[in-house]
Structure prediction request, 838 residues.
Amino acid sequence: MPPKLVPARSIPTNSTGKKTQITPKSNPKKFTKRNSRMGNMDVNDDKRIPENPEINEEDQDDMYQNPYQRREREWTEEELNQKMPTKVLQPNNPNSPNNFTQFSFKDRVFKMDEMVDQMVIHFAYDGEFIYKESPEYDIQEAIKENREALIKEAKNAMTADDLSAHKEADTEEGLKKLKRTLRNKFNYNERQSQTVNEVIRERGVSTQPPPMKRLNLELNLWDVWDSYINEFNKVSTEGETSKAQVKEKPEKSDNSLYSVSFKRCLKIMERMVVQNEQQEQYWDYKYYFTEKDMPDISNSEGSLLPIWRITSEKQRKKHVTSICWNPRYSDFFAVGLGSYHFNRQAGQGYICCYSLKNTTYPEYFFTTPKGVMALDFHPKSPALLAVGLYDGTVMVFDIRSKHKKPIYQSTVRTMKHTEPVWQIFWNPDNSKNYSFYSISSDGRVTNWVLMKNKLEPEDIMKLKLVADTHGEDGGNLIGLACGLCFDFNKFEPNTFLVGTEEGKIHKCNLSYSGQYQYTFEGHIQAVYKVRWNYFHPRTFISASADWTVKIWDTKSPGPVMSFDLGTQVVDVSWAPYSSVVFAACTLEKVLVYDLEYDKVGKRGETKQPKQSKLTNIAFSPKDPVILVGDDHGGVTLFKLSPNLTPNLVKVPKSDEKKIGPDGKPIETKPDPKAPIEPPTPEQIAAEEEQKMEKILALVGKFDKDDL
Amino acid sequence: QMCIRDRYQRRVHGDYKLDNSCTEMTESMSTADIKRMMIGKEIIKEMSDMNAEMLTEAKDIVISGIESNTASTGLNMEAAAKNIKDTLDKKYGPSWHVILGEGYSFDVSAQEKSVLYMYYNGAYGILIYKA
Prediction:
């Protein structure tokens, strides 16, 4: 049984100084109380407290002895007087485990071992004494003997070698050598020195490694395929969006929105909408002047009612240079747009073909590289449109064609005009190929024949400069005159008139290409228009920049009648229904003259509301309607009052002298209910001719009187 | 090789249609046409993060490396890869890694701004990086 010890710790005595007994078994000489810091714990159970039996009394406050216990509890008397529990020392190592488990490979199972080594070595020190009777002493002795034996041997060997080698030699030398080898203090000196050690320093630098990142991916063939496909499609969609607007329409042929029949439906709808919206204008166009029955219109002033101003956005900056009604469709007309400015030829020219059924937008629209100066429809094939441009080119368009290009075009090689083409006229004779005439400021009147794939030019006439007959010796004039207008006679198809910039009007013949048949002089400045009378074979009218409009008779050298309009006259035109009615266009207004009514003054006039100058007029061949073009790209449609259009409607057969104003039956008719026979065209023609003759006769009489 | 590719297509994609945005150009074309279109064309994937001039240079080196090692019998991949790596080392400094093949996967740590991953000719995937 192990001896029981008590830890020798002194406990502070309480105030009374009493020392109480701890245990009866304790050493009677030393009663010590337990350290208050221990508390009420059961020492047996507390394995943490190291059991150190050699503690001094004075070490009670040594924290080092009790590193775990820091209690500062106050002890009461009763607690202090309590019996201390017995403290038993155990030989177990408190730090050792209770059991020890190990895997046994033989049994393939974890085996627990209760027998744990409890030995703790606190201090070990190897001594320097060996027990003489132990085996270690024997080993030590053996080593020592061995060493001595080796030394002896070495010594013997050394001396033996030396002596044996130099036996015959001088023994003194051998002794000397021996002595030399045996180093002693008297012969042998050792010297040492130490060099300065270099100071060694360690330097270290640590750089940051380059930033790395991890990548991981898998490469498959299908991935490659997909990415290629995506790339191709992306590229193609990008390319397509840029070309989409251009190509969209023809490509979407299967799309019902863009089919031809839908287009047609849209067109009809558009027309209906326009007509509904502009209903008033259409009513005016059709019925104005017939409803209002002016009582005595035959003797009153006429008026022109403006109905529409037909224009579109693109046209706004351009001048209307020519207007032409279609010979077959009475509601269709073409407007040529260009510029009269010499310097500012603003690029393209337009040809707009309008129909009166839809006045908001042209039915056909063509662009030409230069400004359009002249237009003409073919009388028999109403889809052919001949066009003359500012740079002298002539083109022929087929307005039905889908791509807006001319079917014929003249180029420099085909002898196009070098100056603007001012007028164009189709040859009404189409026994052979179609052909048309053009006149230009370069002094040539050219006939263009439409061959298979090109235009064949043929110079009809070169306009020679003619000196003034009344003037002084003008000398010889070199060069060609500038032709501005021409017109073919309906009754003598080979004869034509040419108006020049010099103010002379020449009568020429197709057969005589070299010379003029006659020259009419009277205008001082450029002649802008010449027109033959539709009914009278010898009369023609001319408009000039010298503010006058003159009527001529081929019989007489000078003008028969002359009207001074006060400003430049840009256009003049006979009315197609009468031989005595004509309209003249100045920069500001259109004046309609009726020679039968008034031989001096006008019968009707218009006034342009907007600040634009007028450029052209064109009578409609069928309706009492006149188109006036202006320099803002707009075309105004005027309706003529019935007193300006006396013969357009039915004329009673019986009445030759007094012409009824319109078809409504008036008091002169005997039988209002009886059907009135419309006069035949020949009758009208004959009548008109008569009228003109009368007028000419009258005027001629005046002249003679004057003279 | 062409068979395998087609088989891949059919097996993986089956008969499904690509979504509308993709069908426009290639749907109408036959596979042969598409493959013909792919010849000579390279696609650089988003993983590549070189700066622009280095990218074009590297791309050119890769393409020329492949082209110069393509004999009539096909592409000699080892020689091409070696070629590319040597050129890159000379040009941009040591320790480039070049991986060239038709099907592989990888998980590498590479220096930033020195990675190029591209497809070429509709068949080869080339990864080059510096490490």
